[in-house]
Amino acid sequence: MQKLKGKYWFLTIIAFTLITLLTAYTIPNESHFSFVRYIFGFIFVSFTPGYCLLRLLFSKDKKIEIIEGIVLSIALSFSIAGLIGLFLGLTSIGLNFTSVTVSLAIVVLALALLAFKRS
């Protein structure tokens, strides 16, 4: 999978996470611009966690094709999101918009930081 070079991918993940959180909490559901919120949220849930985990698992010396990377990122993302939902549902925190959003952001940033430190 062709990767962003150096620290640019890390900065991109941080910026995308912050933009997603900003749009999720500032754009109301009834707004004409709510589609922006849904687009950022969908990409954040369906691609970003898996991409960070993939960067952590496949370091510089291991190469994978771009299609394999995209498919693995999507599959891993839905797995991570499902596990987060399962764990939140079993705790006293519960499943709500804020708990899922913040938990997923923390996991994404932690995986990105670990992958950045490893590379």
Structure in words:
There is one protein chain. This protein is mainly alpha-helical and 119 residues long. The protein has one domain. The protein is 75% helix and 0% strand. The protein is built from five helices and no strands. The chain is globular, with a radius of gyration of 15 Å.
H-E string: HHHHH
Q: Which residue ranges are poorly predicted, with pLDDT under 50 across at least 5 consecutive positions?
A: none
Mean pLDDT: 91
Cα-to-Cα separation, first versus last residue: 15 Å
> Strand percentage, roughly?
under 5%
Major sheet = none
Helix content: over 70%
Number of DSSP E strands: 0
Which oligomeric form is depicted?
single chain
Outline type: globular
Instruction: Give the count of helical stretches.
Output: 5
Tell me the structural class. mainly alpha
Number of domains: 1
* C-alpha Rg (nearest Å): 15 Å
Topology:
Blueprint (H helix, E strand, L loop, with lengths): L7 H19 L7 H13 L1 H10 L8 H25 L6 H22 L1
Question: Brief overview, please?
Answer:
By secondary structure, the chain is mostly helical. 75% of the residues lie in helices and 0% in strands. The longest helix has 25 residues, at 66-90.
Spell out the key features of this protein.
119 residues; mainly alpha; 5 helices; globular
